[in-house]
Structures are given as structure tokens and as C-alpha cells.
Amino acid sequence: MSSTLTPTKRSTRTTGDMFLRFQLDRQTTAVVPMLQTQEAIVLPASRVSIVPNLPSPVMGLFNRRSSLLWLVDLPEILGLEPIDRHTQSYDVALLKVGQTPLAVAVRSILGVTRFAKDEISSPIGSFNPAFTPYLNGWILRNQELVLVLDPEAIVNAKVLSS
What's the structural domain count of the chain? Predict the structure, then answer.
């Protein structure tokens, strides 16, 4: 008697694109594509060198694997409550858009998640217009609204170049 294997539908948790998931504030969870994420680290605050006369969201510079990286406050860029600058360490996502690296501080790194791009809803008309330039969209996952951020828009944020 021969047995045949019937293909089974994969769980959505193991299919789809991978995203780094993190907390921006108590109510706001967001993701960025893993394709544009180099790594997530806990950075001791003592390793960040403050540089005067820079825009408020720029927290300073730090050395990572013989490269100097800018650390920016992602919640502040998005108009949310800034990260506490008087803490022992920062949860940081190292993004890379093309050849441009940028380290973004967030409230906490929550891990990696997967979902299909067709699950992403348009942000147009759903959020504050000042917030939408940084969004690719949003998804609803387990009764939670998750923002899908655009790393390219974050790296090129006007507030960082002023």
C-alpha cells in the first residue's frame, strides 16, 4: 500500500515576509522589514557620544564594529513621546537603506514576526497626516494595530537634516 502526502496549508506565522517588531510607546507597536534591518541590540547609554547643536531626535554617535553610527529617537521623529535620555541602555534597531546605515532607538524590541504584504492596509486617511510619510501601512494582528514603517522615509526624514 502506498501512502501519499497531501500538502498542508502553512500557518501564516511561518510564511510571509519577516519584520522586526518593536514598541514605540505604550499604545504603539510597529515593524520594519528585516531586509532593511541589520540587527537589534541593547546599547549602553555610556557608549553614545552626545553631539551639540543637532536636531532634537538625534541622540548622538556611537561606534559599532569600527563604524560610527548616528542614533536617533524614532518615537520622537514620529511625533510620539521621546525616549528617556537618562536611562542605562537603549533598545536599538540598526537599519540600512541602500548604503545608508541608521540606528533607531525604540522603547523595546519585541522580536521578529511574519506576515504577507497583502495584509498591509493603506495608511492614507487612517492616521495623522504628519505621521503618514513614515508609514507603508498598518495591519491588525491578534486584536493589535501594528504600524508598518518605511525605513527609507525614516533615514531621509527632514527633521534629521535640519
Answer: 1
